[in-house]
């Protein structure tokens, strides 16, 4: 036997008469028995869920074969999310119910960072020596392409690259300096032997000079990695502050630190004898300006201001201190000269 719900107007199959529950919408209706009474003589009793609803209760449905369908009920029905336990998509503040069929939006996923990992960041796959050599070649000879495409979020690998390069270059430079110091000590010892001085032992003087040189070299070698770390962070912080002053740091401090760290790898050139340190400084300035301009997308002008700004400030401070020292030294001399002139009758 087919019956039609007076609420949702959908049919369902049942085997009995009486109070029925619509399997589609959950509405309770009365299906009267045509052999016992007529629909006009029986009024359905409202269910507890329908007592609070405004308007009259529905008169129920009937079999499609025996009775016509009742008109749809005009009263508002409680939504399916009005149960004591709210569904998982309900607003936790309870300020609004979601519409039927509403599904929660997935959390926005940030887009992946554009760029490629530097070869040194892939050292486990490429090998330490190959990754280091490829990165150094790109930084030194192709800085524009490298800093334009490098992934700036990998600042740890960049920092390690800069510290390793600075440490290796400084250690080789210290080794050359120590060897030159030993040669100078031997020459001094021979000179003292040829020109004997009273109460001076040439071997003792040479031993003291050699021991002092060796101790200084070991001390400098031990603190070189820490000095490189401090220098990189200090330069990156000063450059970033200057970039912020000219609105040239849209990608954050991590990008500035990455660019300065990779550019600091040029201090490997300190290993060159004689003029290695000077070449490293000038090459570092060029690469740092190019790298900051490309990595921060701020242009070479703002990057040059950020890189050269600390050097210009240091030069100005040095000139100011030197001028003040000279001025302070000349004033007492002029005063003394005036007093001495008064004493001599000039």
Secondary structure category: mainly alpha
Query: N-to-C terminal Cα separation, in Å?
Result: 141 Å
Q: How many whole angstroms does the radius of gyration measure?
A: 44 Å
Q: How would a textbook summarize the main sheet? A: 2 strands, antiparallel
Contiguous uncertain segments of 5+ residues: 49-53, 57-67, 89-95, 334-346
Write down the overall geometry. elongated
Helical stretch tally: 9
State the strand order across the main sheet. Answer: 1-2
Beta-strand content bin: under 5%
Number of strands: 4
Estimated helix fraction = 40-55%
User: Please, what is the average pLDDT?
Assistant: 75
- SSE topology string: EEEEHHHHHHHHH
Notes on the structure:
The structure is a single chain. The relative contact order is 0.08. A hairpin with a 6-residue loop joins strand 1 (2-4) and strand 2 (11-13). The chain is elongated, with a radius of gyration of 44 Å. The longest helix is centred in the last third of the chain and has 45 residues, at 300-344. It has a two-stranded antiparallel sheet with strand order 1-2. Strands 3-4 form a two-stranded antiparallel ribbon. The termini are far apart. It is mainly α. The chain has helices spanning 48-51, 123-126, 128-141, 143-149, 155-194, 202-245, 253-263, 276-295, 300-344; strands at residues 2-4, 11-13, 18-21, 28-31.
């Amino acid at each position: 036997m087919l019956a039609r719900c007076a609420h949702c107007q959908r049919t369902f199959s049942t085997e009995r008469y009486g109070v029925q529950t619509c399997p589609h919408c959950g509405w309770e209706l009365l299906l009267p028995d045509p052999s016992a009474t007529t629909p006009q003589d029986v009024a359905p009793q409202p269910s507890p869920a329908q007592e609070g609803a405004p308007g009259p209760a529905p008169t129920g449905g009937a079999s499609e074969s025996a009775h016509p369908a009742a008109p749809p009920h005009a009263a508002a029905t409680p939504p399916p999310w009005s149960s004591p336990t709210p569904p998982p998509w309900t607003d936790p503040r309870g300020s609004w119910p979601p519409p039927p069929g509403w599904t929660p939006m997935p959390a926005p996923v940030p887009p992946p960072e554009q760029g490629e990992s530097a070869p040194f960041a892939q050292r486990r796959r490429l090998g330490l020596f190959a990754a280091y050599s490829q990165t150094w070649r790109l930084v030194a000879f192709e800085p524009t392409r490298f800093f334009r495409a490098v992934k700036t979020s990998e600042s740890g690998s960049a920092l390690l690259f800069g510290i390793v390069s600075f440490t290796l270059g400084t250690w080789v430079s210290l080794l050359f300096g120590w060897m030159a110091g030993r040669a100078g000590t031997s020459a001094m010892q021979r000179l003292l032997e040829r020109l004997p001085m009273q109460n001076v032992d040439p071997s003792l003087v040479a031993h003291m000079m050699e021991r002092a040189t060796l101790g200084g070299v070991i001390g400098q070698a031990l603190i070189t990695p820490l000095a490189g770390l401090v220098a990189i962070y200090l330069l990156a912080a000063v450059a970033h502050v200057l970039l912020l002053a000219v609105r040239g740091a849209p990608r954050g401090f991590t990008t500035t630190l990455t660019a300065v760290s990779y550019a600091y790898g040029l201090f490997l050139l300190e290993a060159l004898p004689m003029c290695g340190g000077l070449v490293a400084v000038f090459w570092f300035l060029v690469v740092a300006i190019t790298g900051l301009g490309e990595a921060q997308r701020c242009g070479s002008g703002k990057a040059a201001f950020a890189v050269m700004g600390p050097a210009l400030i240091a030069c100005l401070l040095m000139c100011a201190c030197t001028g003040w020292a000279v001025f302070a030294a000349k004033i007492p001399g002029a005063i003394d000269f005036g007093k001495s002139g008064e004493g001599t009758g000039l």
